[in-house]
Amino acid sequence: MVQSMYGKSVAEHRFRLKDQVNTLASFTHITVDGECLEIDPRQLFQRLVVAILGGVAVGGGAAGCVLAARLTEIKDWRVLLLEVGGPPPLETRVPGILPISYIPGYNLDWGYRTTPQKYSSQNFDNKAARQHQGRVLGGGSTVNAMFYVRGNRRDYDHWAALGNPGWDYRSVLPYFIKVEDYRGNLSETAAFHGRGGPIGVTPAPLTPLTKAFIQGGLELGYQLVDYNGPEQLGFSQATFNIRDGVRSSTAEEYLKPASSRHNLHILHGANVLKILFKQRRAVGVQFLYKDQVFEVGAQREVILSAGTIASPKLLMLSGVGPKYHLHHHQIPVVVDLPGVGQNVHDHVEVLGLSWTTKEPVSFNSLFDTLGPASVTQYKLSRQGPLSTAPLNFLNAWVKVRPEGDPLWPDIQLFLNSATFAYDKGTLNPALWGLDVKKFFEYATEIFGREGFTIRPVLLRPKSRGTITLQSRNPDHHPLIDPQLLSHPDDVKTLVEGVKFALRLGNTSVFSNTFKAKFFDKPLPDCERILYGSDPYWECFVRHMTTTFYHITGSCKMAPQTDPLGVVDHRLRLRGVRGLRVVDGSVMPLVISGNSHAPTIMIAEKGSDLIKEDWGR
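The structure corresponding to this sequence follows.
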C-alpha cells in the first residue's frame, strides 16, 4: 500500500537476523527497482517527502504490527509503518526478567501518570497512578506481563448489543483462534483454541503456591476452568504469550516475518505530530524524524493504532475532538467529535493484601530465576525459571456481588509470590508510584519476609474519565484522568473483592501448607475506623488502589445514535473519510481480563474490514 509517485519503494529500518538468539536489529537502506542501496535517511526523505502512499499506519504497537503484517499480504498494497519507539532489545524476549520493564525510567516506557485522583490512589505520590505503556515496536506485547486472556464471551455480546454488529463473541472467536499457537494439552475445550498461529500461548508450570491458590478456589466452591474456553468464571492454570521459552510479541511474530516483503516499510524513531486533512479526508501525516519535520501522503487510508492514550491525543492535535477543547488550545477544528478522549476507564487493583509464610515462596523463587544455573540453563536450552513468568503469577475470576449474570465475573484475583514489602522498600514504592513515607509507615514490619500477595482487580468499572490535551505542543503528555472509583458501585465491588481475597488467602490449604498469616496491621490513614468493617475496607480501597494498565475506551466504537461514539463498527472515524482507529481505544467497554489478547483480535479483524472495504 505504500506507492511512491516516483515509482520507487522505500525500506527503512527493517528487521534482520543478527545472531542465533534472533535479536531484532535494524539497518537503513533504500530499495530502488530491486537494488538495495545504503543512504542517509535525511537525503531519503528530502527526495520522497511528497510521495503519495497507499496507506500509513501510525503506531507500531501490539495492534500496529499486526495491521502492517496483514495488510501487506495484499502484494500490490504498500504500507508505511511509523513508530516512535525502536526495535525490542534482547532482554524483552526473556520471560523471567519481565519486571525490568516496570522499573521507572526504563527507556521502553512512556512514563505516563494519571492526574491526581480524588477518589482513589490516596497513598500514592501526588495521589497519581502510573500508566505503564510500551514505547517500542510491539508496544505492550514487548513489555507487558504476557498474560494471554481473551475476556468473557458476554463482554463481546454486550459490545454487539450496544449497536456494534460483528463484534459478538461468535464473530470474534475465529480471530482469537487464528492468532493462537497453543502449546498445552487440551481435551474438552480444544475447539476453542488454535494451533500454528502467530502468537505462542503456553501454560505456566504449576508450583506448590499456584496449586494452593487453585485448591483454595475449589475450597470456596469454584471450579477448575480453561478461562479462554467457553466459560471464564473459576480458577485455572495461567497461560502466557510465550513460545519455546521466549516472549511471543507482535513485533517478533507478525512484523519481523513480514519485514522481508517489499511492500512493507518500517520507520522507527518517527514521532507523528498530526494527521493531515483535505476537505475532511485524511490524506497523510506529519511526523518528526531526526529533528526534521516531514509530511507523507496516503492514497487509501491513514490507520491510527497509537493506543488508548496517544490515539485521542493525536486526533485532537489534528483538529478532531470536542470543539470547545480544541478552541481552548487554539487548534483549528476539522470535525467536532465530542467523544474523542471520553469514556476512559481502566481496571482498578488493590495493593497491600499480603500474607507472610513460614515456608519459602518468594526469595528462593527469585534467586532460582536469576541465579547462574538458571541463566546457563536458559542460554543452552531456553528452559528453566527464566523461560516463564516469574513470581508464580496466576489469575482467577470470581463473582462477588449478586447483580447481573451469575457467570459474568466482576473481580479478577491476581496472585504473586512476594509480599507487599519483600524487597525492604528498595524498589517497590517506585514500581507502583507509592508515596514513600506512607509505604514505610505501613509496611516496615514485614520487610524482607517470605510470603505472597493477592490483588483484587475490578473488572467492569462504572467510573469514567477523560484524556485531554495539556497543550498544543505534541511533546507534552496528555492529561490522563480516569477518575478511578468516582462511581460508588466500583468501591462496593472492590470491598467485596477484598473480603473474598481474605477468605481465599485464609483457606486451609494456605494455612496448612505454608503456615500463611495475613498482615493485618491497620492502614495508618484508616486506623480510626473499626478494623475489618466495610467502612474500613472502603477506606483501604480508596488509599491503596491503582490502575491495572488496561486503559481503554477513549475512541469508543458505537452507533451513530451514541453521542460519545468515535468510530463505527468498521472502525471508521466519524465525520471524516480515509481514517480508521484500530487499537484498544475503540473498546466501548473494557473486557473482563487483561487487554492484550483482545487488542490483537481487534487488529486482526480490523485488517479484514479494511480488505473487505477495498474489495480485497
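The chain is about 25% helix and 20% strand.
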